[in-house]
Amino acid sequence: MYQKVLDNIKELPEFKLLCKKKTELLSIFKSCKNKEIGEIWIYLGNKLEEHINHEKLNFDEENKTLLFLEEKDRQYLLCCISFIFLYLQHLENNEKKNKHISFDEYFEALFNKITELQFMLSDKDVRESFGKCLLQICELNLKDSIFSENVKINVLLFLLWRCCSSEGKGVDISKLKKYKDFCKYIKWETPEKTIDSFCLLCSYSLNLPKFYENADGKLFLSYVWLQHESIASHLFSKMVHNTVLLSYEAINHYCEIIYMAWKNSSGEMQFVVENQIEYLVQFSIKCPIKIASRFRYLLNIFHTNKGDKNVNNLIFKIYDPVIWRNLMSANWKIRFNTVCIFQLIFPVVDPCIKNINYLQEMEKAYNALFDMCEDENSCVLQAIAKCICYVINELWEIISEDKRTKLFDTLINKLLRGKSYDNVKTEVVLGFCEMAKNKKINKIFIQIFDRIKYLINDKCLRVRKNFIILVLELNKNINPSFSNEIDYNELNKRITKDFFTFNIECCIKKLSYLKQEHHEKINNKEICEFLRLASNLITYSMWDCDIKEQAKKCINLLNEYPVLMICISKFSTNLKLIDRYNLACVLFEITNIKLGEEDNMFLLKKTEDKNKVHCKNYLKKCLLLKDPILNKKFIRYSSLLICIYNFLKLKNDEEMEVCNSEHVQEFLKTQFSEKFFIDSINTLMEPYYFKILKHINLDMDNYLSIHKYGCRQLNSLYKIKNENMCKSYIIPLFFKWGMLETFFKKNIECLNKSIEYIFSNLNANEIVTSNNSEDIDNTGYSEYDGSSSDIASSSSYSDTVEKSGKESIIKEGIEKRRKNKKTNETDYIIDDNEGEKKRNFKKKQLANQKEMNALIFLSIVVKKKKYHNSLFKNYSNIIHNFICKFNYILLHMFEKIYMKDFILPAQLISKHNDEKKINKMDIDIVKLPLYDKIKIEKYMCLYVSFFFFGFNIHFKQNNISCDWDLLISNTTKCIEIINSIKFINEIEITKNNGFSKNDHSISNNIQLEDKKKEWISYISIIIHLIIYFLDMVEYTISMKKLDIEYTDFNNFIKNIFLFYKCYEIISNDQKKTIELYLKIWNRLRSFLLVLLNFDYFENKLENKLSIVNTFFLFTYDIVPKKNIEDMLKKYHLAYKQKETFSDFLQNFKKNNDNIDYMESHIKNTQEIFDNILSQKMKTKRG
Known about the structure:
Elements: H1 2-9, H2 12-20, H3 22-31, H4 34-52, E1 57-60, E2 65-68, H5 71-93, H6 105-120, H7 124-138, H8 146-164, H9 170-178, H10 193-205, H11 209-212, H12 215-225, H13 229-245, H14 248-263, H15 267-286, H16 289-298, H17 300-304, H18 309-327, H19 332-345, H20 355-372, H21 378-394, H22 401-418, H23 422-437, H24 445-452, H25 461-477, H26 488-511, H27 525-538, H28 547-560, H29 562-571, H30 577-595, H31 616-623, H32 628-648, H33 653-659, H34 662-671, H35 674-679, H36 686-693, H37 704-715, H38 723-737, H39 741-760, E3 767-768, H40 801-819, H41 832-861, H42 868-898, H43 906-909, H44 915-919, E4 925-926, H45 933-957, H46 964-980, H47 986-991, H48 1006-1038, H49 1050-1066, H50 1070-1093, H51 1101-1113, H52 1121-1134, H53 1138-1146, H54 1148-1151, H55 1159-1181
Antiparallel strand pairs: 1-2, 3-4
Helix pairs in contact: 1-2, 1-4, 2-5, 3-5, 4-5, 4-6, 5-7, 7-8, 8-9, 8-10, 9-12, 10-13, 12-14, 13-15, 15-16, 15-18, 16-19, 18-19, 19-21, 21-22, 21-23, 23-25, 25-27, 26-27, 27-29, 28-29, 28-30, 29-32, 30-32, 32-36, 36-38, 37-38, 37-40, 39-41, 39-42, 40-41, 41-45, 42-45, 42-46, 45-48, ...
């Protein structure tokens, strides 16, 4: 039979087939004699050698691995391993009880050869198969020999390799623990590859959470740690390295490993482990603070188990020599780290000491605490404050009465009042919070509370926040009325102030993203947490009564502190949703009743102009009513409605589920009926009522009339006056109802038609003559004051929104046309052409209104992130088309402006003009595709916003191809064009001082005034076009798509100011001129700050400062001095070459002495510079 085996071993196919016939092969092994089996191993060893010689293998230098050249040789090796495995199964099946098994020398030679080879090969299948053989041998009752010892060592290596691989499981780690005793066979003193591999794999296991988080893994590592000094050194080094990098959760597992190792150590290895612990103590003191805290955490298990006698002995033995010396260190960081450890091991007394000496050692520890309170470093004081609080809380029962008193006096008099560091006070209050939870200690606060209650109004936010936590704990654990001892008047003022601060910070955060408003919701955790806790403290007993009494308390508090009540309604969390809804309903009912009273009727009085209520200036006038009584009423009821809004607001998913329940929905329908919201329309209270609608979780079916009113408002956005109302209330409401998609589609399609129309007519009517100049100044559609039918005045509605919108628009256009009609009735001849002209005019007017409506609507929705998915997902092609077309339109417009050198007619500059000179004014004005300032603003807003979100988010995520480089290139060309504009009469324009003119009256020459209007309109359009284009320039810079290092912005700034100078010369309206100048000046100031933030001035500062010089040359006296000073302070902080910048400021006037016509501006600016520089010098000397 064995001859059959030998024949099948020769070739791979037969060998594979033989290994698959498990039963047959086992019977063959059973029938073979020992000699025959030996011959099988000899023959198999020779055949294997043919397949694994050096000619059959290849060493990969790059990956340092050994690989088979041919797959058949690898398969032969796998068959050999399978053959051996079946033989081992045969031995197990035929093993006799209490009989040791031994292998013949040929089997051992073959097995050792495969063992050596599988280590060198980087073959997962070979290792897995061979590993099964190793584990199978371990199941046999082997006779002790060198071979069996090597097998057991290789079992450990295989299991370690298996655990460290990605396929390793908890079962493998359990097997490793089972065979941990095999470690005794490792000869640590003899340098071998197996020992090195074992050490490396054990060290690597400390990187694997699945290993060190497993209880069996921890046990195995702690056992291995004690086998020899070399493996202990490997594991310790790896643990120290990982402690610096890994999370505290991982360090917590390391704690258990080293603790178990020390606990089970004895003799020489105990000395080794304790030496390593001593090193960890040194690391926890001498390392930087953040790293030292990690090593303290690693030692934490010893500190928490110091009640154990052996642990206590170890702590004293290791810590006593280093603690007292390092507490007095000159390095404050070492003192800080030492105090942190001192807190955990206090009082560091020898457990074997006698009673008398014990008291002396305790006194020594207390004195160390008191001495450290004299430290000058705030961080060390913070650590000692935490230490004292910890000692009081943990050792309260063994501390004498005198020591308790002294410790509290130290905390209150020295650390709270004496040093007055915010971080120290915060730490003391946190310590008090922990004491308040301890029933054995908290009664002490009855005695000391009067000495510390002033902290609730501390200037530090964290101190105030933590003190409120303390008061709430004392209310909970001692007496619910404990908080009555606080001065609530001062607390109310502080909360009000902090609530204002919170809202201001929200505004500042939003302003930093003003261009696109692409910002996450503000989340200032510290101040929010304080306001939440403070609100809960004030309302601690406020809700412990029936609903009517709750409402009464709310109204009384609101009458005295309206802002405080708003804060409470927003941040308070100690009132459940159902209770909040009940309270909101009662307050809503009271509000409606009060507003219905005769004294308050003015708040719900309909305005004559139905859109006037939405106008910001109108609201501002109402807020600043001259009558203080009326003003107080307005504030009271508007604040009450805001409180109702806050109470209705859902705060988490659980509340959302409750709110969606059927009985809650029915409750909301009955309490918040549509009638009250209808009555508020076109009144002062409308915004506040509609604010509440946003958080009433009901669908549109309950508010059909409100829906129709909202549709009308969204279709009349072109009037401008209701933009704020739509932005703040109607659009969010429609979005909540899922009704915004219709308006998205209508307006985005209208925008697409408009941009296509502009693009297709770029080359038509490029030159404006006297016959068509009125089109340039035509902004009538954005200034209509006509009225449309409104829900507040009429109960009838058209069937469709589109139809009603068209009717109101046409009616409004006819009314406006009639008002603006200047021709006399006697000169007006009615013919067939006149009717056609009227129809064309109405058609054009309606198209303009639709275009403006679309621009305003889309400029609102693009600023809010929650609407982006609807926009970009469904209309990405239209947006992409808009970006590309408008990019080209911008380039076209700037090219038309640049096509001819800019010449301001001399007749407009000179004061002395006769009719002949005026008639010779034949300079043509270029007609631009966009000639309305509001349109330019809205188009540019959409362009920049679409470009920003398309480039950065949507188009990239969805792999939509777009030639961004070409678009960026066109933007760069526009910048170059603006830089290159030449003013023929530049000197004459610059020298003309528009503000020094005494005569701003309108000339009697009608023809001259008409020309002025044309040029004022034309120049104004150019200025606004460039100013809004700056948004795109800034975005291109922020994307780093524009190489600002080689871009000259000096002429860019100069040309903007020169256009303004032209406007100033012509304009007769000084107020509008000043407003335009300040708008330009402030916009360019922010642009220069952008350049500064993107390192425009980093290199060649002397040359780059020319742009700043140009900016200040055109800085007039009308600019507030404070604005200039604030600007210079920011610039001075940001410039790295401060001396160069200071020299520029100091020599500004000197460098511009030759410009005599700007002498007054330069002199005024230099005085401000000198004042700033003198303040800097005083600060340095101080």
